[in-house]
Write a structure and sequence with these properties.
The chain is α/β, with parallel strands linked by helices. Helices cover about 30% and strands about 15% of the residues. A six-stranded parallel β-sheet has the order 3-2-1-4-5-6. Strand 2, helix 2 (about 75-85) and strand 3 form a beta-alpha-beta unit. Helix 4 packs parallel to helix 6 (about 140-145).
């Protein structure tokens, strides 16, 4: 199945979730293959530390940097994400499939056009900051939206010594001021410590790509 083809059972509510001007919304993108407790823990942590109103889980059709990854169907991953989220402040969206992209830059540009009154923050783990410079148009992403990086040992040192972290060092916001990030003009980013979880989707997959039972 081509995951860029939107499954018939996924409808408009999975495009852009409810929002109003002035909302502070965190964006957590990923394949969610499978979704797990760390996704939820990161979201609850970000809601508190960044003083956000909501978190949107953006379930991607696929990661361009993981083209060989065996993916469950988009509707399966969305359904599992909705079950895992289990919080009224977390919305699950398949926006990238709706607009036909796998690239974060396209997603953020689209949301800024459609939701110009919303204050977005892009949320990523330290493992993603370590390779952020490999993302398509990564400098442009940093120019468009504030970024919150959640510490995920043992990736801390690799993340903070990465090309992206060094390049954007001047724009780093002290984590004591993380609650102001959504109101700041990009580029701006912070590195949040205090959440300890080494759980990952990779560890929750069997060798054949199927999901392990909880």
């Amino acid at each position: 199945m081509n995951d860029l083809t939107l499954p018939a059972e996924i409808h408009q509510p999975h495009d852009i979730p409810f929002h109003t001007d002035g909302m502070r919304i965190g964006l957590l993108g990923g394949s969610f293959n499978p979704p797990h407790d760390a996704h939820r823990a990161i979201s609850l942590f970000a809601l508190k530390r960044l003083k956000l109103d909501r978190i949107w889980w953006l379930v991607s059709p696929g990661n361009p940097l993981k083209r060989g990854q065996a993916l469950h169907t988009l509707d399966d991953r969305v359904a599992a994400a909705e079950k895992m989220a289990n919080d009224p402040r977390i919305d699950v969206s398949c926006l990238e499939a709706v607009i036909g992209t796998r690239y974060t830059m396209d997603t953020i540009s689209y949301l800024r056009r459609r939701c110009s009154g919303v204050r977005f923050v892009w949320i990523m783990g330290a493992d993603n900051l370590a390779q952020f410079n490999r993302w398509e148009s990564w400098r442009r992403i940093a120019d468009l939206v504030p970024i919150a990086v959640i510490d995920r040992p043992p990736d801390s040192f690799r993340a903070l010594s990465s090309v992206a972290a060094q390049t954007l060092a001047h724009y780093r916001v002290d984590e004591r001021d993380a609650g102001t990030l959504a109101a700041r003009r990009a580029p701006a980013w912070t590195f949040l410590t205090g959440l300890k979880s080494d759980l990952s989707s990779t560890r929750l997959r069997n060798p054949d790509g199927s999901w392990k039972s909880p």
